[in-house]
Amino acid sequence: LNPLFQAMESEISAAFDSGEPEDILSRAFKLTVTREDICTLQPLGWLNDRIMNFYMGLLVERSKKEGYPAVYAFNTFFYSKLSSTSHKGVKKWTKGVDIFKHDVILVPIHLRIHWTLLVVDLREKTIKYFDSLGQRGDHICKTVLKYLEEESREKRNIELTASEWTLHSMGTEEIPQQNNGSDCGVFVCKFADFISRDKPIIFTPEHMPYFRRKMVWEIIHQQLL
């Protein structure tokens, strides 16, 4: 092991093992991440909203650099609010933002006890649903397309043509699938990571323990490796 990697490893272990649960380990994107939050990244831990939203913030931050598609990420509470109300209920969430000026929109979704991801590609007019348990999300794609139509009408006075859009739930042969009951949050973060770099999704469930540790370091240092 090179010294840099060893230093990172000891830092990751310290994040899990020393100090108090309420210790603040990172602050950015109007979010505070405590040791308790970071500990959800331990093996088989369930990622919480704070970790998910912080990681989405890191992806958006990276997308501002040269050579990356422009990314907008909704927070994890957006979809549940949208689906329980309508466009009216989330209208203010994009105050001062034109989401249509981005290339990719990430919508992390919390379905009671499972994380999934919806991705809008405005360049290709596609809405794709990524679920590491292989469940279909056709109704979720439709709900978000309807939201985009209303958002476009209201904010830009432009009618979207629904027939020009392709909606697709990714099949189990198209994307990697989790092999336990707890890695869905990490899968969502990594789907979003690869998509926001326009890279093919080539990781496997075997990468999860490594991704978890890497995410600890990235969140603490507020930079993606």
Automatic annotation (TrEMBL):
The keyword Hydrolase applies. Keywords: Hydrolase, Protease, Thiol protease. The keyword Protease applies. Residues 31-195 form the Ubiquitin-like protease family profile domain. Gene3D superfamilies: Adenoviral Proteinase, Chain A (3.40.395.10). InterPro entries: Papain-like_cys_pep_sf, Peptidase_C48_C. Coiled coil: none annotated. GO terms for molecular function: deSUMOylase activity. GO terms for biological process: protein desumoylation; proteolysis; regulation of macromolecule metabolic process; regulation of primary metabolic process. Pfam families: Peptidase_C48 (PF02902). One of its GO terms (cellular component) is nucleus. It comes from the Eukaryota. Belongs to the peptidase C48 family. This is SENP2 protease.
